Amino acid sequence: HLFTFEYQARYGDVGSEHEMCSVLIGHSDQEPDPNPTEIAAWRYIGIEALSEEIEAHPALYSPWLKLEWARLMADHRKDIDAL
Description:
By secondary structure, the protein is of the alpha+beta class. The protein is built from three helices and two strands; from the N terminus they run ββααα. It has one domain (3-81).
């Protein structure tokens, strides 16, 4: 467990979120099996490529991912690189 953070975000007239998010890192040889009602899509992407995509196309990414990614890059990059 690296850290926990709280965030709130509105989605126009659709609704809002107010959540506590725990951030964990690790390594696995298993294929992810996300809940399709929670996750629309996923893919593997490199660290630098994700940073560039978030910068170039921020609307494509959830508010919590942008908050989490900024903190991961600022405070925990060495932990990620050590995996």
